[in-house]
Amino acid sequence: MSEIAMNAAHMIDMLPDPDKNLAYELIKKLVLAWDPDFTKLTTEEAKQLEEAKGSGFVDAEEIDWSKIGHE
Predict the structure, then answer these.
(1) 8 Å CB contact between 12 and 24
(2) Is-contact 9 17, C-beta < 8 A?
(3) Cα–Cα distance between 45 and 59 in angstroms, integer?
(4) pLDDT score of 71 more than 70
(5) Residue 34 in contact with residue 40, Cβ under 8 Å?
(6) In what helix (H) or strand (E) does residue 44 lie, and over which residues does it extend?
(7) CB neighbour burial string for 34-64, b if at least 16 within 10 angstroms, e if fewer
(8) Residue 25 and residue 27: Cα distance in Å, rounded?
(9) What 8-state DSSP symbol labels residue 63?
(10) pLDDT surpasses 70 at 70
(11) What is the DSSP string of 7-42?
């Protein structure tokens, strides 16, 4: 989690419960406006994906799933 996200979470935690819900709904609305179907990668997710690809990542289409668990 980024430092900004952690700071935001800590600040939201200081609020009374009704205000926590308001802050949560605002954040949810902002995230949905940015990515309505949750398909965009964050900078950190993109970095992790590139690292995974460089470390022997295998495409699911390259796997013969019929042989998995049948040894």
Answers:
(1) yes
(2) no
(3) 17
(4) no
(5) yes
(6) helix 43-53
(7) eeeeeeeeeeeeeeeeeeeeeeeeeeeeeee
(8) 5
(9) S
(10) no
(11) HHHHHHHHS-HHHHHHHHHHHHHHHHHH-TTS-PPP
Find tokens 């819900």 and name the residue. Answer: 21
Specify the residue for token string 């295998």. Answer: 58
Instruction: Tokens for 47, please give them.
Output: 């970095």
- The length of the chain in residues reads 71
Q: Please name the amino acid found at residue 3.
A: E
Tell me the residue type at 33. A
Side chain identity at residue 30, one-letter code? L
pLDDT in tens, 19-53: 999 999 999 999 899 888 888 888 888 898 888 88
